[in-house]
Write a structure and sequence with these properties.
Strand content of chain A: 5-15%
CATH class of chain A: Alpha Beta
Distance between the termini of chain B: 45 Å
Largest sheet of chain A: 5 strands, parallel
Number of helices of chain A: 11
CATH architecture of the largest domain in chain B: 3-Layer(aba) Sandwich
Strand order of the largest sheet of chain B: 3-2-4-5-7-6-12
Helix content of chain B: 25-40%
Strand content of chain B: 15-25%
CATH architecture of chain A: 3-Layer(aba) Sandwich
Order of helices and strands of chain B: EHEHEHEHHEHEHEEEEHEEHEHEHH
CATH topology of chain A: Rossmann fold
Distance between the termini of chain A: 33 Å
Structural class of chain A: alpha/beta
Shape of chain A: globular
Strand order of the largest sheet of chain A: 1-2-3-7-6
Largest interface: A-B, 44 and 42 residues
CATH class of the largest domain in chain B: Alpha Beta
Order of helices and strands of chain A: HHHEHHHEHEEEEHEHHH
CATH superfamily of the largest domain in chain B: Thiamin diphosphate (ThDP)-binding fold, Pyr/PP domains
Radius of gyration of chain A: 19 Å
Oligomer: heterodimer
Number of domains of chain A: 1
Amino acid sequence: MSTAELIVPPTRTQDAGPAEIARKCLYYMCQMREVEDRIERKLYRQGKIVGGVYVGRGQEAVSVGTAVLAAPEDVLFPSHRDMAALLIRGVTPGQVFAQYMGRVGGVTRGKDGNMHMGDLKLNIVSIISAMAASVPVAAGAALALRYQAKNHIVFCYFGDGATSRGDWHEGLNFAAVQKLPVVYICNNNQYAYSTPVARQMSCANVADRGPAYGIPVEIVDGNDVLAVHEAGRRAVEHARAGKGPYLLECKTFRMTGHSAHDAADYVPKHLWDEWAKLDPITRLEARMRDQGWATEAELDALHARIRGEVDEAVAWAEKSPYPDPATLLEDVYEAW
Amino acid sequence: MPTTYLEAIREGLWEEMERDANVFLIGEDIATYGGAFKVTAGFVEKFGEMRVVDTPISESAIVGASIGASLMGLRAVAEMQFSDFITCGFDQIVNFAAKCRYRWNAPVPMVVRAPSGGGIHGGPFHSQNPEMWFVRTPGLKVVTPATAYDAKGLIKSAIRDNDPVLFFEHKGLYRRIKEDLPPEPYTVPIGKARIAREGRDLSIITYGAMVWVALEAAGKLAEEAIEVEVVDLRTLLPLDRKTVCESAKKTSKVLLLHEDTRTGGMAGELAATLTETVWDDLDGPIVRVTAPDTPVPFSPPLEEAFLPNAEKVIEKARWLFRY
């Protein structure tokens, strides 16, 4: 597949100017939106997807605004609504589609599905289904980076619901005690499956939990990618300077159900309407037009280009074979 | 000078840390204090705080951090203060560590050391044998040494292994058994049982502290001209089915012994394996001597009644011999 040349190189935006940052962020937000729309609204309905579908529609700014700050050697722990973190790292849309279709070309070769994608060569660690299980693991990765005297950091993503789990608290506490270089990025999308934040916790913000662990926090408009990027830059500088972990809470909204089968009738209609006006892609495009960072024609061309890339990626994934049942017993151990 | 089981584990850890700078220890009270059982006393002075990491009381964080560090190329050796507390890190072990290689080809070369076993009047939360919670989890390896020689050789192999290994060290053996160890470095392979005593009449298949119970019983049965073979499994996962079946074929009678409770214990898996593989060679039913299906009780008379011992083994073995 030739998507490698179509993708913006995975360099970080730490020192880029605002127009360049905006263009890069827009590309990945649109790519994530297109890939996930294709999965949830087309391939799933066509019966081509195996198993569940969990997307981050409406909250693309969270993973994009932060993951573009990562150096290639930084280690990313994306949550199941952070598709862009994978794409920015170099996982191709074709691999993602193949993953969702249970094909050999998927990141896990058919051994696992949906957003359970990891690749040590790309410094991405796969989530498991138990929420927040990655949080202590992220601390361990940071422990190793520090021991190896590398000035790299860990980006650990999760949703608001994950912060109810004991693993989250154990992981944050340990990282804080050890002053480990971890940036925690919470996509507070207001719902954990069907349960609203107020039924998850009695504090107003996930960030309110940070001071209990001695961790500095920041709350940011999670639907403003440039604001996320700015706050993310502060978090990254803090962690990279050896000052310990930093918790960034991005307020956003899950503009879909928990998964493709969930109509999310439990969400009041006015919330859909209010958050639809705050769509992060629409907002960034308006800003780019206003600032003269992009013309309407350029934006149209970007969308067309991404649609083309995604068409090509779907076709590639559909040609990828299903795994041979003979591989069932492989890779349980190094040698069996 | 003989080396205790505890000292053997300690030597194994020490040698591997000297040999490979990627090996590090993590757990509760393991650095300054040297661990609840003093297995790691003196380590922080030699290897420093970066390689001997004291943690909060957070078993999930201990195991999770071990996984994360191991994914990044280190070799973590985590200590559970008592194996009973491994439950608090259960999800990290069975869902995260065990499945990484299968799911996304990510090796987790991690060891979880877990002091297990009864006979020390520790009560329900300091005496359990939780190995079977993990033996049925593909992707893990489970090691249960019975001797000082094997404890040292197996901890070294566990550290060098590229898959997650649970190392159940029986705390009743820590200072109770000792033997002369070779002065030169050695390892013991994971996945290989050993014949602890040769015999022709009956096989006792066991592991951990019960190897010593089996040997005691075998010694007494020899006085009655019953020659017992004792198979020490050493590793429960992957299971050395070949050695187990060969011994059963040789003696035609099998007694399965473990300190763990009965239902869902290792004996069930062994009995099924023997039935599938060497049924035609058996001259009697496969019998079990195990702890009963209760929590581990605290008071000495209760715990004594709970634990298998040589008398219980001898009684069953005599019955099976005459069958």
